[in-house]
């Protein structure tokens, strides 16, 4: 089988992530309604999301952004309702936000066997994850991902087309045999298609609104949607076989006169 370069995303592609954030956001909303009885949990969650996402464009995917979105939401509703801002409440919320980074992550089902199979088939596996160095490195170590990715690990604070483009240049990847596998339409799929590499989209169990965008990119590369990580090796294998078949058929159909011309060149 022709060797492929396969880039995997980490959060919600190889290991769970959104569920931990949702759990802590739930605790945050539960606490907030004890302080603000005129505001609903839904309003609190919407404001937190808005503040969190807005900060990405300024600060990237740095960890501090998330606890600060709790503090920002608290201050917003204090101003709205006239409630006094209390230092101990702000401190409590900041610590609550940081708790999410202490939760041990669990792998998505079949993570190890999928990566092992692709490795044994001779493909070059890369990891491209968004976030800050300390937190992502901790998860990578905990999941023992160096077994599959060794030093081929890239952590981007701004995970976009520029970041992907830099990685593709660094690894000198031929787009025709390069893939991006991820759960984020915004930060995995759109950049992959903009760079015209193959994209495999695997929707997460629950998705962060930031990751959901319309995919409207002109591309000639393959774009597949799969239900689970486990389906990745067969899908790539099938694509390679079909691609080999169509290339063969195309060369078979070249008229004799054209063959002669190309031979004379
Ligand atoms: Mg992800």
From TrEMBL:
Keywords of this entry: Hydrolase
* TM annotation in the entry: none
Q: Which InterPro entries match?
A: HAD-like_sf, HAD_sf, PGP-like_dom2, S-2-haloacid_dehalogenase
Q: Which Gene3D superfamilies match?
A: HAD superfamily/HAD-like, Putative phosphatase, domain 2
Q: Name one GO molecular function term.
A: hydrolase activity
- Reading the lineage from the top rank, the first entry is Bacteria
Q: What is this protein called?
A: HAD family hydrolase
Species in which this protein is naturally found: Metabacillus litoralis
Taxonomy of origin reads: Bacteria, Bacillati, Bacillota, Bacilli, Bacillales
């Amino acid at each position: 089988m022709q060797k492929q370069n396969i880039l995997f995303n980490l959060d919600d592609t190889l290991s769970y992530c959104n569920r931990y954030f949702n759990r802590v956001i739930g605790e945050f909303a539960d606490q907030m309604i004890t302080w603000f009885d005129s505001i609903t949990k839904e309003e609190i969650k919407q404001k937190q999301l808005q503040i969190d996402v807005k900060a990405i464009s300024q600060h990237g995917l740095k960890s501090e952004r998330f606890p600060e979105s709790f503090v920002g939401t608290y201050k917003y509703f204090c101003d709205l309702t006239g409630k006094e801002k209390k230092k101990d409440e702000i401190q409590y919320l900041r610590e609550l936000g940081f708790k999410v980074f202490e939760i041990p992550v669990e792998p998505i089902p079949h993570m190890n066997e999928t990566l092992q199979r692709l490795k044994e088939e001779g493909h070059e596996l890369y990891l491209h994850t968004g976030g800050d160095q300390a937190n992502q490195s901790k998860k990578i170590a905990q999941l023992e991902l160096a077994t599959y990715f060794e030093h081929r690990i890239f952590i981007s604070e701004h995970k976009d087309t520029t970041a992907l483009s830099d990685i593709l240049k660094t690894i000198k990847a031929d787009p025709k045999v390069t893939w991006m596998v991820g759960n984020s339409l915004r930060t995995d799929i759109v950049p992959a298609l903009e760079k015209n590499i193959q994209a495999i989209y695997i929707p997460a169990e629950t998705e962060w609104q930031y990751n959901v965008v319309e995919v409207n990119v002109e591309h000639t590369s393959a774009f597949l949607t799969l239900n689970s990580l486990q389906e990745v090796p067969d899908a790539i294998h099938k694509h390679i076989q079909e691609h080999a078949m169509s290339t063969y058929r195309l060369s078979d159909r070249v008229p004799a006169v054209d063959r002669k011309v190309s031979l004379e060149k």
